[in-house]
Amino acid sequence: MKKIIPILFLFVLTACSTTKKIVDKPIIFNDERTELTLNYLKERYGLDQKEPTIVPKMIVLHWTAIPTFEKSFDAFHDSKLPNWRPDIENVSGLNVSAHFLVDRDGTIYRLLPETTMGRHVIGLNHCAIGVENVGGTSETPLTKEQLKSNIWLVKYLAEKYDIAYVIGHHEYTLFEGHELWLEKDKGYRTKKTDPGEEFMTKVRNATKEYKFKRLPKNSN
Ligand SMILES: [Zn+2]
Question: What is the mean pLDDT of residues 197-214?
Fold first, then answer.
């Protein structure tokens, strides 16, 4: 009996992976965005790279706090930070982005190649794949379909890359002092609440078999 379970489990995994699909809907990644990304890697992390690539070791889940897919997509589309984010504009002109954007109905859109750097989490962008979810406000709590798609995506990415951590954006400061944390400016932090404990607990319970590492303990 013990031998049958892993085989059955593998079969279920394979069956799941064929039922969802990813829709490619790339945001602008022109020379300007490449330049801004290379500059970000160098200035923030001390990484002098020729290409704006990452080695994925972590998945960070988010919500956009924007109620519609179109407006969420628009927030990431342009290369440069629009004026309405002056709180981080002085750090770098690179616009925020994420690799995936999950719509309210669970449709998964890929905005960036998985190994290109997106700007979605301070300190960890050099190794983190970002998954954004449309909504997250009190009027638009994340849906069951989004939860299912996030779980599917975590499994899909963990099969593909050497993913050690799956975290919620609200947990990112726990990595200060960790070997993966590269942000140089101690004053550059923003407080985050997305996507919340409840969502993360559900994702973690559904992906236990991947044995992701526990979050580091941080006294901050
Ligand atoms: Zn976030």
Answer: 98
pLDDT at 86: 54
Distance CA(169)–CA(148), nearest Å, equals 18
Ligand 1 center to residue 4 CA distance, Å? 40
Average pLDDT over residues 184-206: 95
Ligand 1 centroid – CA 211 distance (Å): 23
Lowest mean pLDDT among 87-91, 160-164, 174-178, 206-210: 87-91
User: Cα angle vertex 110, ends 175, 48, to 5°?
Assistant: 50
The token duo for 6 is 């892993």
> Ligand 1 mean position to 64 CA, how many Å?
7
| Run of H or E including 130 | strand 128-133
Distance CA 88, CA 84 (A): 10
Predicted confidence (pLDDT) at residue 15 exceeds the cutoff of 70: no
Phi, psi of 41 (to 5 degrees): -60, -40
Q: How far is the CA of 62 from the centre of ligand 1 (A)?
A: 4
Place of tokens 């990595």: 175
* H-type alpha helices, the chain: 4-17, 31-45, 69-77, 86-89, 144-160, 197-206
- Give the residue from 201, 195, 216, 179 showing the smallest Cα distance to 137: 195
How far is the centre of ligand 1, averaged over its atoms, from the C-alpha of 51 (Å)? 25
Q: What is the pTM of this model?
A: 0.88
- Angle ∠(79,82,83) on CA atoms, nearest 5: 150
Q: Read off the pLDDT of each residue in 51-67 and give the average, rounded to a whole number.
A: 98
